[in-house]
Amino acid sequence: MVIIMRPDANLPEVEAVVASVNALGFRAHVVPGLARTAVAVIGNPGPLAPGRFSRIPGVARTIPITTPYRLVARETREAPTRVTLGAGPVFGPGNLVVLAGPCAVEEAEQFLATAAAVAQAGATVLRGGIFKPRTSPYSFQGLGLAALPILARAREATGLAVVTEVVEPASVEPVAEVVDMLQIGARNMQNAPLLRAVARTGKPILLKRGPAATIEEFLLAAEYLVVEGNPNVVLCERGVRGFDPATRYLFDVAAIPLLHRLTHLPVIADPSHATGHHALVPSVTRAAVAAGADGVLVEVHSDPGAARSDGQQSLSHPEFDALMRSLPPICAAVGTSLTAPMAHA
Amino acid sequence: MVIIMRPDANLPEVEAVVASVNALGFRAHVVPGLARTAVAVIGNPGPLAPGRFSRIPGVARTIPITTPYRLVARETREAPTRVTLGAGPVFGPGNLVVLAGPCAVEEAEQFLATAAAVAQAGATVLRGGIFKPRTSPYSFQGLGLAALPILARAREATGLAVVTEVVEPASVEPVAEVVDMLQIGARNMQNAPLLRAVARTGKPILLKRGPAATIEEFLLAAEYLVVEGNPNVVLCERGVRGFDPATRYLFDVAAIPLLHRLTHLPVIADPSHATGHHALVPSVTRAAVAAGADGVLVEVHSDPGAARSDGQQSLSHPEFDALMRSLPPICAAVGTSLTAPMAHA
Amino acid sequence: MVIIMRPDANLPEVEAVVASVNALGFRAHVVPGLARTAVAVIGNPGPLAPGRFSRIPGVARTIPITTPYRLVARETREAPTRVTLGAGPVFGPGNLVVLAGPCAVEEAEQFLATAAAVAQAGATVLRGGIFKPRTSPYSFQGLGLAALPILARAREATGLAVVTEVVEPASVEPVAEVVDMLQIGARNMQNAPLLRAVARTGKPILLKRGPAATIEEFLLAAEYLVVEGNPNVVLCERGVRGFDPATRYLFDVAAIPLLHRLTHLPVIADPSHATGHHALVPSVTRAAVAAGADGVLVEVHSDPGAARSDGQQSLSHPEFDALMRSLPPICAAVGTSLTAPMAHA
Amino acid sequence: MVIIMRPDANLPEVEAVVASVNALGFRAHVVPGLARTAVAVIGNPGPLAPGRFSRIPGVARTIPITTPYRLVARETREAPTRVTLGAGPVFGPGNLVVLAGPCAVEEAEQFLATAAAVAQAGATVLRGGIFKPRTSPYSFQGLGLAALPILARAREATGLAVVTEVVEPASVEPVAEVVDMLQIGARNMQNAPLLRAVARTGKPILLKRGPAATIEEFLLAAEYLVVEGNPNVVLCERGVRGFDPATRYLFDVAAIPLLHRLTHLPVIADPSHATGHHALVPSVTRAAVAAGADGVLVEVHSDPGAARSDGQQSLSHPEFDALMRSLPPICAAVGTSLTAPMAHA
């Protein structure tokens, strides 16, 4: 931390700051300047609360220096992490993993039909929500644990790996027994009890960025997972809250190369939630791939107009098929390729 | 819902929309215009998903008409809700309830000292976190259930009502047995399992606005509580995510009169988290009172520089005292007055 | 500036940074840390471009230390600036200046009627736009210079000081000859040619914050004015762009005490543009006064429903009258009082 | 416009709204609903001000139906507009136009060197600011009109078309005599006097999106240009204000396909200003191309570390060269190709 003094701070005030740093067991390094003096704090093992110094007379403000996340930082570990789902798809350099499926599991036959369609089109991970966090209590909330056998059946029928969201600690264990990857949704990015419960299963985790989360907060949420001993974390950019109601969220495509600079974890993108409109999904998916995403998560429904949630943003089977056919040349341009499907069970 | 057609939509396209509305069991009302036609949907009991119509050829966009929240709407119930904590403070017109205390319970004697100080200064509800949702896993996370006896002791010693935050369903019950009001924090505003668990205790609830939540989303989160049969909900504006790092959050003072127009629930303000800086808290507290808040939630610490969380934004005992002395004339100007303390146990 | 090195930066990389600082004629101060080294730059007379160092191998990022504004900074000049309009109202500590009137001058008799009404209610400055920057080219753009005589007549008839907005350098001079204060609108906060032209008139200036401007950018826009030799600058918070369409803009009430800490210039508030809705204006005006504003700018129209611009947010004469009557006790609570009107011409 | 009544609105209140619509010369269409009544306004030639109805008792709110922009709307004209610079590059379907060069013209030889380098790498338009709108009055503001001959010389030497920004009406004419395209910068997107002056030159215009502008506001700014009789407008997404200081602005990649749906004007992207960091520019440029941009605007400097403005975000000559070599396969994937250079003068 660097403590910036006011231009009119006097020597006793600077000395009081130094004493206060020393009292915490750290060393203070006084940096004189033309306009004002700064005091660097040395020897602190992690970030310091700004409140410790901001009330000392003569202090203008404090500036953090230490990066607050460690285990997920690329500065700590240069080699990219690879996250593998069972015998199947691997998130990491060189691969583009396509995760697809309906927003929610609504009914078995329909779900199996979409599973078969996305597998046929080249997806290797199947998504399907059984717990749906909805803005309104009157909206469809998902079928719950009762739908787990449908996920298992789809997995067996298609050979796709399966990812689904969990929303409270109590249901983490039964879900983890069935699926290949657990998703923590955007609303729960900072739900510490849930993060800990999911991490402790040891399963691969798909962590979505909260709509108001900075990149630093996103990485700190991932740190909650990795610090529990589970390194199998895949980050997902899914749009942040913007000021323009023209799209549902504002897709932060620059977050993809930025995260690749800051962390060794794989980074994927969810253009469906980000844009909220099916007509924008193909272009934004292609943009994410061109920006270097390690995967894309696309909502697909056999009859989007009749979907019980998010029909507005879901692609139909033919639309998804067309999108998939457009990806290989872009993959080639950025040095990735579509992953091969998981060995069939 | 009103479905807006493109200017170049032809008659068969309009008829297809009408047929699609009828197929759902609703009536369609065609509204011809100079530039384009609109189709109003009549007879739907609640909001419709836009995805149902947006893919029909000739449709430009859809506009929701129905307010998605019902029980909390002022249109449904004109009379303001009054929320009473035990024998004590009442949130509602004419009263300004002051909730104060440290961000987190750190140690018994210190907490009791602050409790006594805020009671002395005129607060009637004591705040103190035992579960602290923190951005970093390395930050102090609170003392947990072990600190419940400290809350009980402070309550008994001062006669203050006590509010504390819960962060997962599993700890709702033990906490509800001790405190007078349960807080749902900003990060958990849309945590449905937690909302339901808290609502079912029947206890008064303090619901904080999420930092990226629109007013409509905030009211829908409150609807999750009230629909469970618990009408004792107090809303709290605590700042939203803004683009300027000069303050921690952006305090949305206009949300106070806006919420009073839209809902019958009491509305309070948290200037401490909103601004993130103690020097701004007194002015923003006064602004909230002048805007018509039914209460204010202020962080107070006996030694802010040494606080284990949020010291930067906490007032010292004398600072809080000075703030409290400035409030009565503003209360008088807007027709409220500071509540009397709870009858001592 | 402090240059933060990567944890894995080696000694030659640190030395290269030092050499690069020295090459610019400044001194480098190496601050070793547990996790990483930092290099403080000493002797630079103003902010340095981050691009100078960010490409040197081993550099993680750079942190500015120097405040980029100088003349407007409270650190430079502790005493509050007082801005006086002619023989009339003074913006500064102890006074609450009320500026009121219609969004735009539409017609002489109507404008004179509103001028008389706001004067009667206690306003001391009359607002009225003759150039209206509008989002759509099809909206009413104001009467232009032809309306200057109407402003002059209203001024003479009521004794109110007059403020109006200018939108391009070419019309600054003719307008400055008639009015008491020139307004630079939110859209033009960073329009440097306009800022310079207005500053050079020597007239008092009302500078509105841009809807996406940080506090630092706002103060730098003011610096553009003061550096031209015109210290008569009044800052106006008028709402920033938020993510919730429930209000037109998001009124940043905390900006008022924050600006008072950072600058010696007076700070007023515009609750009309900020909220965009007449029903919210009175509460937000009272909040601004309670937060310490040196003035408030309120849109008033004799027939808001018929206004050619901003009728939605304008108060009627009786609504403005009621608002004015509610202000004195709040003023008293924060140590200000309504200004006396300008001596009648 | 649709006027939504409150659920408790009575018949006389609905009739008053109808009368008020009729009084304006329009027709009212009453749409009864289960929960509330709506009144559609028919026959209005353009958007109505909401203030006309919002104060009538029983009115809950008003909803605009009419799109406020017309000439630029794709609904008005389906065929994409092609904008041609002299004998040279054409903005429109099938072409990717690359505009490159330094942020500002600093010195003739250096500028000519960069011009030659970007031409060599495949750019067909040269950018170079001579008026730089800067946040601080102490930053380099550009060489002004004195640098026009440098632009002309670079154009002649390389055969590149030239684009530069104008910042006030007074300098539009002399600049228009020299360059091929006039840029209106993000800060001036709603500067109506400047928009009109630039449009009236008849020259092709590069209009940048303001950092807080919605898509609708952006299109209305373009409408200001086209309504003056100049259809040669190219839109440029350059990042909007976001809440995360990790990047300079938040690049809104979804705006590219969204604008293509809403308008017939070409759409390009500026990844340099959007991200503010050279390391992110290549990935974001590729994303923009994959999303369907009709062009990209990239800052290039012969010695970025020494640039007088925006060095942090400028690519060096070799970095730009590498970026250009990566684009053709992405262009091929989305059906465009790099434009051929302008016929050499």
Molecular structure report:
The structure is a homotetramer of 345-residue chains. The first copy, chain A, has 345 residues and is an alpha/beta fold. Helices cover 30% and strands 18% of the residues of chain A. Chain A is built from ten helices and 15 strands. In chain A, helix 2 (108-121) runs parallel beside helix 10 (317-333) and helix 5 (192-199) packs across helix 6 (215-226). The longest helix of chain A is centred in the C-terminal third of the chain and has 17 residues, at 317-333. The termini of chain A are far apart. Chains in contact: A-B, A-C, A-D, B-C, B-D, C-D. Chains A and B meet through helix 5 and helix 6 of A and helix 5 and helix 6 of B.
Tell me which oligomeric state these chains represent.
Answer: homotetramer
Taking pLDDT < 50 over at least 5 consecutive residues as the criterion, the unreliable ranges of chain A are none
User: What percent strand of chain A?
Assistant: 15-25%
Radius of gyration of chain A: 23 Å
The number of distinct helices of chain A, counting runs of at least 4 residues, comes to 10
The backbone outline of chain A, from C-alpha atoms, is elongated
Q: Structural class, judged by helices and strands of chain A?
A: alpha/beta
What's the story with the biggest beta sheet of chain A?
8 strands, parallel, barrel
What strand line-up does the widest sheet of chain A have?
7-8-9-10-11-12-13-14
Using DSSP, what is the number of strands of chain A? 15
Distance between the termini of chain A: 54 Å
Query: How much helix, percentage-wise, in residues of chain A?
Result: 25-40%
User: Largest interface, with Cβ-Cβ < 8 Å?
Assistant: A-B, 53 and 52 residues
Order of helices and strands of chain A: EHEEEEEEHEHEHEHEHEHEHHEHE
Mean pLDDT across every amino acid position of chain A: 93
